[in-house]
Structure formats: structure tokens, C-alpha cells
Amino acid sequence: MSPTPAAPRPTRRNLLFGTAAASAGALLTGCTSNSSSSGDDEREGQSQAAVADDSPGRPVTIGFAGPQADHGWLNAINENAHRRAEEYEDVTLKTTEGSNDTAQQIGQIETLINSEVDVLVVLPADGRALTQVALTAMEAGIPVVNLDRIFDTAQAYRCWVGGDNYGMGLNAGHFIGERLKDVENAKVVELAGLDNLELTRQRTQGFDDALANYPNIEKVARQAAEFTVESGQEVMSGLLQAVPSFHALWNHDDDQGVGAERAIEQAGRDEFFMVGGAGSRHVMEAIQADDSVVKATVLYPPTMAASAIDLARALGQSKGISGLAELEIPTSITLYSAVVTRDNVEQYLPTGFN
User: Fold this and answer.
1) Alpha-carbon distance values, 240 to 60, 267, 310, 311 (Å)
2) Among 340, 302, 316, 345, which Cα is nearest to 78's?
3) What is the CA radius of gyration of the chain?
4) For the packed helices 102-114 and 131-139, what is the interaxial angle rounded to 10 degrees?
5) Which of 141, 227, 220 is nearest to 187 (CA)?
6) CATH architecture of residue range(s) 165-300+339-351
7) Quick one: which of 309, 340, 314, 339 has its CA closest to 327?
8) pLDDT tens digits, residue range 265-307?
9) Whole-angstrom distance, CA of residue 170 vs CA of residue 185
10) Where are the domains of the chain?
């Protein structure tokens, strides 16, 4: 069967009130198309939306713009997006050179808009600063899939997909709390990320809310690092000197955790266990080996970029969802922050990033 002829670009009204549905990740597999020889797809005069599937459809050009990949997780975002796009013969991916300079990223997105891509996937270096250019894309009839760092208004995107920072802290806190619930006067230390980021504050709030359920546990120290190996080592060294003994450490980010591990080894400390954040392959392998203080990590999955490509492709092809009754794609998809331990690490190891 020949590909479906290209449809007119969606209008602004279509984008806000009614393009066909799509979904991310596992929801996009094992689905069938709208056409049916039996006619069972029409019931009581109600037609179902075309559901997303892997079979080739109308060609879609997706513009992908993200920040500079100066961090393991951000590099994994780029890799996930490229790998997913390569799986689809009907997808052409146009990417920009990542930048942490907002003016430069705005210019890159404007270039993608002018090249008339069908859909945009944007992980903004700064959601607030890039809101206007996303609005420009939407007003031009180009659906925007907002990845992770959110724009200031829902009018700037058709769908947002990202991680759960509050849930990340909450699940880390509950994991630590359950392991220490029978320990009298348990002490916990937190190695946070950049304090000027809202995501860091959300992770800390979730962690504190979880620990509030365990009256025997006290958080005795918290210091912020900068999501880098060097800062993790420096700040962790200071924490180890300031707190002579404690039972658990939660580190917000596995990249800075590499530095924290170095500081811990240099200090010869092993009286506590460590829970990481994000889900790097290094940490998962340490969990699997079970020969260090690292016992768990809480996911912030970079696979969200692959899901964003799935969503963008489905939007461009006016395909819908399998598994949900709604005919439209959700306006937001929040990924779950699973806790990876020795018991389940083999399941999650393929998602670990370098």
C-alpha cells in the first residue's frame, strides 16, 4: 500500500483543540491502524482515531533542538532522540547544535521554523526564555513537543513530556526511610544539585516530605553541588568532614555522584549507603556489583527523548493512541521515577546512560 498523501499543515485551532491522538513509549507498540476490512472500527456512528504504530506512514520531518550536551544525561537525551528517529523510515530528523546560550538556541529554533519542519521537539536551555519562540512555532501551525524543562505557558506546546522531580525526591526518601525505619536516631545527608534550578528545589521538597513519615530519621546536612564530577567531589569532601557519622546519603545526580564516590573512597568511609539520581550505567553497574556504598538510584529517564520523537511522529501523521479511550494526545506526560536496586537492576540496565 502506498503512503497516505500529505495532509495540509494543521491550523492553530487544530493544534489547540483537535489533532489526532498519540502516545509515548510502550503505548506506541503493538498497535494497528485505523483501517479495517471488517468495519469493526466504527461503532454506534463513532469513528476511532488512527492509532500509532510502527508501520511506515506519511513522511514527517521533525526538528530537534536541545541544550549543549555537557552532561551525561543531556548527551543521553540526544542519543535517545537520534536512535528513535533512525528506527522510523518515514522520519527525517533535523537537529541543531546544542547550546546553553538562550539567544543562540532561539535562533536555531527560528531556523527550524523557517525550514518548515512538520513538528518541533524542544528541550529548552531555559523554558521561560524560549517560551516566545515556541509560541511562534505553534502560531505557524507547527506542533511543539516540549521536552522536560517546561515553557511558561501551555499555549507554547501541544504536549509536554518529562520527568518527575518531586517524585524523584519522594521515592528516594521513602527508599531510605524504609531501610532505616528500625534504626534509632538515624542520620541522613543530602547532596543536592544546583540550587538556582526549580528542579533541585522540587527534588529536595519531595525528599523532605518522604522523610517526614519517619520520625526516627533526621536530615543532618544538605549541600548543593553543580551536577559535575568536580563539584560532587569537592562538596562531598566537605560534607564528610562536617558529619563524622551518618546512615544514608541521597545524591541528586549520578554525574556529580562519580565525584562523591571518589571523595568517599579517599576518606575511607563506608558506614552509610548511598542512593543516586538519574540512572547512569556506572551507578547501575555499581549497584549490580554490590561492592560499594552505592545501593540504589532513582531514575530520571533520558528515554523521554525517544518518547518525544514517538509523539512528534504521531502528531505529524495524525495518528492516535492505543490503550486509551481519548482521541487526543494528553497535554502532559510525566514519567515515573523508579528506584533501581540490586533486585531489579538487570531490568533497567539497558536504559543506563554513560
Assistant:
1) 53, 8, 44, 45
2) 302
3) 22
4) 10
5) 220
6) 3-Layer(aba) Sandwich (3.40)
7) 314
8) 999 999 999 999 999 999 999 999 999 999 999 999 999 999 9
9) 21
10) 12-163+303-323, 165-300+339-351
pLDDT digits (tens, 9 = 90+) for 165-211: 999 999 999 999 999 999 999 999 999 999 988 899 999 999 999 99
Can you tell me which residue has the cell 576518606? 267
Is residue 192 a contact partner of residue 220, using CB atoms and an 8 Å limit? no
Residue type at position 4: T
Q: Which three cell numbers stand for residue 103?
A: 539567544
Q: Which fold has domain 12-163+303-323?
A: Rossmann fold (3.40.50)
Write down the pLDDT at residue 333: 93
- With 0-12 / 13-18 / 19 or more C-beta atoms within 10 angstroms meaning exposed / middle / buried, residue 350 is exposed
Same fold: 12-163+303-323 with 165-300+339-351: yes
Distance in angstroms between the alpha carbons of the first and the last residue of the chain:
41
